[in-house]
């Protein structure tokens, strides 16, 4: 079997790994509405980005994971798509700037989405809320 080679992603320093663990420990887990945080806490992963089906999260060892939160068993897999790893970590730095050292080099040809300016969402002119950017599928990059 051929070994999968992913772009070089930074490895958290012991101090950053401890900080990631603290953020995980602080996730709210009480109440039905916090079920995603509760699952992330149980699986020792920090949620960074989500779509209507998937949640991407980071473990203290620097591994990016993807959880299908619509499936009954909530399967969790290691993310292997370089674009998604890059985009998820970029999105994660909006909340946790300390994670910037973990962002791998951008995959060849990747561009920040012009439609949403890299946010992953757009404000709808006729509504008081924002919606996922269709151009980049909510990642901010394509």
TrEMBL record:
Q: Report the superkingdom from the record.
A: Bacteria
Q: What is this protein called?
A: Uncharacterized protein
Q: Which organism is it from?
A: Haliscomenobacter hydrossis (strain ATCC 27775 / DSM 1100 / LMG 10767 / O)
Q: What is the lineage of its organism?
A: Bacteria, Pseudomonadati, Bacteroidota, Saprospiria, Saprospirales
